[in-house]
Specification:
37% of the residues lie in helices and 15% in strands. The protein is of the alpha/beta class. Strands 7-6-5-4-3-2-1-10 form an 8-stranded parallel sheet. A two-stranded antiparallel sheet has the order 8-9. Helix 6 links the parallel strand 6 and strand 7. Helix 3 runs parallel beside helix 4, helix 4 packs across helix 5 and helix 7 crosses helix 8. It is globular.
Length: 295
Amino acid sequence: MMKIGIDSYCYHRLFGEVYPGQKPPEKKMTMDDFLDRAKALGVDGVSLESCFLPGVNGADESGIDDGYLKDLKNKLDDYGFERVYAWGHPDGLERGQNEFAFKQMCDSIKRTSLIGATVMRVCGSSLMFRHEPHGPQIKALVAQFKEAMKIADDYGVKIANENHIDYTADEMLQMIEGVGSPNFGINFDTGNFLRLLDDPIEGMKKLAPYTFATHIKDLVVNPNAKPTDWFFFSGVPVGRGLIDNFKLAQLLKEANYQGVLAVEIDHPHPDWYGCEDEAVGVSVKALKDIVEKIG
């Protein structure tokens, strides 16, 4: 049976990242709260956004304490969770041009190992740079990822670069082939290709063999957004939108995917503002139904 999980970014508002137009939560969530909720929902794993860990100061994550990470590992072990260490929110390596971010990413390989994870989600870029020429970006990122893989291989960590509303499936494949490591692949976000008007199904046919982690999104058109807004396609629970996540999960199973189908909701549709936990619960149930049907 395929495994189901939750990415902590679903609760970004409760972790303190409040989008314009959203209300701050009455009570903030801690990482322990998130893990307890994930356990209560009966999932198999979690993807932990490093930006929400204690000790983070803006883009500087050097304040994350190794002792805390070891304690976190113990709790993950106690709960029997599969896990992904997710680095790079919001703009990652900034298309290969941010050397400070590159160092932060390399340092996070050790942090990935400390929590007992074998996969680290990273972001090579973001929607901020998607309109700049992509050729130089891909060349710079391939060079950085080749260097990072030397460290990751020493720790036994796979690096999964997310399609982060930046590159098409063909461009992601070009990067994977350019790095040329069996331990470098993709964190396949099922919604972000749609936001580039790139067919997620066709993308999965190409990228399933290289998929180490996932974000399982579902999206519909936001009536309050302009077509040029990144959230023109906004988040709804799995099964309520335009993404054929059943077919995507089938393709992953056929490729012998070993990771977790991790629910992620970033910018919620207006109907779901302030309803993060309900949306996650509906999504988990929908994914359990998908997994049961696929077998």
